Amino acid sequence: MAGEGHPTVVKWNKEKIELTLVPEHGVKGLKAELEERTGVPVDRMKLMPKSKGLWKGVLKDDFDLASINYSKVKSPLQMLLMGSATKLAGPKTKTVFLEDLPPEEAAKVAPEPSGLVNLGNTCYLNSVVQCLRSVPQLRSGLRGHRPRPAAGGGGIFLASLRELYDSLDRTAEAFTPANFVMATKVAFPEFARTGPNGAPMQQDAEEFFSGLMTIAAAEMTGG
User: Fold this and answer.
1) DSSP code string of 101-113
2) What proportions of the chain, in percent to the nearest 5, are helix, strand and coil?
3) Nearest one of 113, 112, 87, 110 to 97, comparing CA atoms
4) Percent of the chain scored above 70 by pLDDT?
5) How confident is the model at residue 1 (pLDDT cuts 50, 70, 90)?
6) Is the Cα dihedral 156, 158, 163, 164 positive or negative?
7) Domains in the chain, ordered, with CATH?
8) Rounded to whole angstroms, how far apart are CA atoms 147 and 117?
9) N or C terminus of the chain: which is more exposed, having fewer CB within 10 Å?
10) pLDDT tens digits along 177-187
11) What is its EC number (predicted)?
């Protein structure tokens, strides 16, 4: 009967693939279905009979499947497929680019930490802030710090430093530390000095580091 299908089991490695063989679809149709089910390319397939009465040896593309007397072959038809799957599986997750991520997510995966904008000879401040950014004890102390009532500029300075680090953690872009620069000038009036032309004067990074550590020790330890 034209178009009649025959239950078939194809053994491939440790798998058993169940399908319906339609002789009119030909060998190419059978192999195309097996390629879709297994990923084995058609040109690398070797299909052998396991049931008696099918064909002999490796199935050739020009073999006429309709020439088989299926009434004399035990159902389901048994075949053996040899060949390795070489098709690469597509990506399981969508590729997301860094520039498409929200700022906070981008900051977590950025290859380099976010930078600080120089606000006029503030490189001394930026370098110290970035160096101390990776010190876990300081970061932990800042998160737990609560300014004392009479802390004055020192308490404001540390609170501003904590907010600055929080802002840097939320962005992958260069951040402008305007509030922290202002808090620094309040805590350290000597860093607020300007030159004859009104521009901020250059300052010493080691001096700023020493001052920051002094305030941190006094505020966080009560010293």
Assistant:
1) S-HHHHHHH-SS-
2) 45, 15, 40
3) 110
4) 84
5) very low
6) positive
7) 6-82 (3.10.20.90), 98-221 (3.90.70.10)
8) 27
9) N
10) 999 999 999 99
11) 3.4.19.12
